[in-house]
């Protein structure tokens, strides 16, 4: 039960013309507990009610004093401060976690409406760089969050699998490449050939013509060109899939840029018919001067299409195919202009749903101490990043807990979790500097810390069950919440109560870091309780109550971790 809604619902009859959601939105959590558990700043109502804030606070106090789930109500300097009846509050919260389980925190806000998320979207035969790691992690978290809140989510990997670079790659392969080396080395070899092409083309410009020729062949469906292109795609996807497997990420559609080849002509025609296309020195573009943007290039001088052409076509296709409520593009902030232009062109075409297209931008990552080798290709580096993280966690486990079973599995869960969590630890738009020490710290505000706290809950529960299970002996059917009113227990229960609205906030702001920060707070709050309140005490009732809290924290941590793409090992 979300108490903001409970209070708001209770006040609706007294606040004529105001919606429950609006009232809930005005309620605040006071910065310190002396000012109540919830507070309504009544100055926000004085315009509508034409009354002084303090008078409103007094009126609402009189009304709220009748609620049997409130301990006390105060009207102070225009604020109406509410003190919850602690035991019924704690009872309510924990009971709802213990009955909802994996569903705790979910809501049916989406009612099955569709959201398309375009994320990851790496370029074939090019490095899967750290930027792609970020879009993959953020996109995957958004997918989980939207699904948890009742949306039907379509996950699209808009592969960069088309463009003149494939002509260059074919020429380079024919000149200097070997099939076996490509099979063995994968993308790094394709990248080497691509770089070599550029070096050689400086002194042998005729290579460029040959490359153009091969790309034209590819566009015309030439058998050899298509076979080679498909092979490059396959080699690249093999490598991308290794990273996706490690991260536990998958997609519903891999319709990349090439998918739109036969769909662009109709869109170009539509742009012409709508008189949006203008010729400029042989090229075709849509002018956006009125919106203070450079023009969007649609057709090149040589007749070829561009990134914009494909994105406009893709958006139209997605709207027709999925009838989305919103289409999200998780792409680095460097492409902001590209998306602003794309969305504007779609709006100019007369599609009012252009306003449902959202660019979810994120900042850069730099890697402290890790050397990027362009020659090798960052792909290798990224896989290294994950495998090194796993190896480091493996060492830590070996030294702390050498007798543990399935060390490899746990090292993978925690090692990968550390990288994901680190990525989601600050607002997405901020640049991040990756530091091994920070990411792998079991005590800092990291993934391993939260996962470790979750495992600690499991361990207490296991001890309570003679090592047999992590469930509550009676499934949590009965416990006396009045035994959980000491400072630490109550604080942890209050933290649990914030989970549902935290998930909702993360969705509204499309900001998974809101959940990561919440998880650190909950873990810290639990650890204060754990250090101050012995759980497996002799007093049967006390023990039962504390275990109910431990189980509730465990479920909440597990649900939150899952939403941002982390697993919850029972033992670390
Ligand atoms: N392939 C692009 C890149 O690596 C990202 C594509 C993002 N999605 C899109 N619909 N443009 O930069």
From TrEMBL:
<dbReference type="InterPro" id="IPR036695">
    <property type="entry name" value="Arg-tRNA-synth_N_sf"/>
</dbReference>
<comment type="subunit">
    <text>Monomer.</text>
</comment>
<keyword id="KW-0963">Cytoplasm</keyword>
<dbReference type="InterPro" id="IPR008909">
    <property type="entry name" value="DALR_anticod-bd"/>
</dbReference>
<feature type="short sequence motif" description="'HIGH' region">
    <location>
        <begin position="122"/>
        <end position="132"/>
    </location>
</feature>
<keyword id="KW-0067">ATP-binding</keyword>
<dbReference type="InterPro" id="IPR009080">
    <property type="entry name" value="tRNAsynth_Ia_anticodon-bd"/>
</dbReference>
<protein>
    <recommendedName>
        <fullName>Arginine--tRNA ligase</fullName>
        <ecNumber>6.1.1.19</ecNumber>
    </recommendedName>
</protein>
<dbReference type="InterPro" id="IPR014729">
    <property type="entry name" value="Rossmann-like_a/b/a_fold"/>
</dbReference>
<dbReference type="Pfam" id="PF00750">
    <property type="entry name" value="tRNA-synt_1d"/>
</dbReference>
<dbReference type="Pfam" id="PF05746">
    <property type="entry name" value="DALR_1"/>
</dbReference>
<comment type="similarity">
    <text>Belongs to the class-I aminoacyl-tRNA synthetase family.</text>
</comment>
<keyword id="KW-0436">Ligase</keyword>
<dbReference type="GO" id="GO:0004814">
    <property type="term" value="F:arginine-tRNA ligase activity"/>
</dbReference>
<dbReference type="InterPro" id="IPR005148">
    <property type="entry name" value="Arg-tRNA-synth_N"/>
</dbReference>
<dbReference type="InterPro" id="IPR001412">
    <property type="entry name" value="aa-tRNA-synth_I_CS"/>
</dbReference>
<keyword id="KW-0648">Protein biosynthesis</keyword>
<feature type="domain" description="Arginyl tRNA synthetase N-terminal">
    <location>
        <begin position="5"/>
        <end position="84"/>
    </location>
</feature>
<keyword id="KW-0030">Aminoacyl-tRNA synthetase</keyword>
<dbReference type="Pfam" id="PF03485">
    <property type="entry name" value="Arg_tRNA_synt_N"/>
</dbReference>
<dbReference type="InterPro" id="IPR035684">
    <property type="entry name" value="ArgRS_core"/>
</dbReference>
<feature type="domain" description="DALR anticodon binding">
    <location>
        <begin position="450"/>
        <end position="572"/>
    </location>
</feature>
<keyword id="KW-0547">Nucleotide-binding</keyword>
<dbReference type="InterPro" id="IPR001278">
    <property type="entry name" value="Arg-tRNA-ligase"/>
</dbReference>
């Amino acid at each position: 039960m979300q108490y903001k809604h409970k209070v708001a619902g209770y006040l609706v009859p007294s606040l004529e013309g105001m919606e429950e959601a609006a009232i809930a939105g005005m309620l605040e959590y006071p910065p310190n507990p002396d000012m109540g558990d919830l507070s309504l700043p009544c100055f926000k109502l004085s315009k509508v009610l034409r009354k002084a804030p303090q008078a409103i606070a007094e009126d609402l106090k009189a009304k709220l004093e009748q609620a049997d789930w409130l301990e006390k109500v105060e009207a102070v300097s225009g604020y109406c401060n509410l003190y919850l009846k602690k035991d019924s509050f704690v009872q309510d919260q924990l009971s709802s976690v213990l009955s909802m389980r994996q569903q705790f925190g979910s809501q049916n806000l989406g009612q099955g409406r569709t959201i398309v998320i375009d994320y990851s979207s790496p370029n074939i035969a090019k490095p899967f760089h750290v930027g792609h790691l970020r879009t993959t992690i953020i996109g995957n978290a958004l997918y989980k969050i939207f699904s948890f809140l009742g949306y039907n989510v379509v996950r699209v990997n808009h592969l960069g699998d088309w463009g003149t670079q494939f002509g260059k790659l074919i020429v380079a392969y024919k000149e200097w490449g070997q099939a076996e080396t490509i099979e063995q080395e994968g993308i790094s070899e394709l990248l080497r050939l691509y770089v070599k092409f550029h070096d050689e083309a400086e002194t042998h410009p005729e290579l460029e013509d040959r490359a153009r020729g091969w790309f034209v062949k590819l566009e015309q469906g030439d058998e050899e060109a298509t076979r080679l292109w498909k092979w490059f795609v396959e080699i690249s996807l093999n490598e991308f899939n290794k990273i996706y497997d490690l991260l536990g990420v998958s997609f519903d559609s891999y319709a990349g840029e090439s998918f739109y080849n036969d769909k662009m002509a109709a869109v170009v025609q539509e742009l012409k018919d709508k008189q949006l296309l203008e010729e400029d020195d042989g090229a075709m573009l849509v002018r956006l001067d009125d919106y203070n943007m450079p023009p969007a290039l649609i057709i090149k001088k040589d007749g070829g299409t561009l990134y914009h052409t494909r994105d406009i076509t893709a958006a139209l296709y997605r709207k027709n195919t999925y009838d989305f409520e919103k289409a999200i593009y998780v792409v680095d902030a460097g492409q902001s202009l590209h998306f602003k232009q794309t969305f504007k062109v779609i709006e100019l075409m007369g599609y009012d749903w252009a306003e449902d297209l959202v660019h979810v931008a994120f900042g850069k990552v730099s890697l402290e101490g890790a050397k990027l080798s362009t020659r090798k290709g960052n792909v290798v580096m990224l896989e290294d990043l994950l495998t090194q993280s796993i190896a480091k966690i493996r060492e830590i486990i070996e030294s702390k807990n050498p007798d543990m079973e399935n060390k490899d599995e746990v090292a993978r869960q925690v090692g990968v979790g550390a990288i994901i969590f680190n990525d989601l630890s600050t607002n997405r738009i901020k640049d991040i500097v990756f530091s091994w020490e920070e990411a792998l710290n079991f005590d800092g505000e990291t993934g391993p810390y939260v996962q470790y706290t979750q495992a600690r809950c499991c361990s207490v529960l296991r001890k309570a069950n003679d090592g047999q299970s992590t469930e509550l002996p009676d499934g949590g059917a009965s416990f006396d919440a009045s035994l959980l009113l000491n400072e630490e227990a109550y604080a942890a229960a209050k933290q649990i109560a914030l989970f549902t609205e935290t998930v909702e906030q993360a969705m509204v702001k499309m900001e998974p870091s809101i959940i990561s920060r919440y998880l650190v707070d909950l873990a810290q709050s639990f650890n204060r309780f754990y250090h101050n309140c012995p759980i497996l005490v002799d007093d049967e009732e006390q023990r039962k109550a504390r275990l109910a809290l431990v189980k509730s924290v465990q479920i909440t941590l597990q649900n939150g971790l899952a939403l941002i793409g982390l697993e919850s090992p029972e033992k670390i």
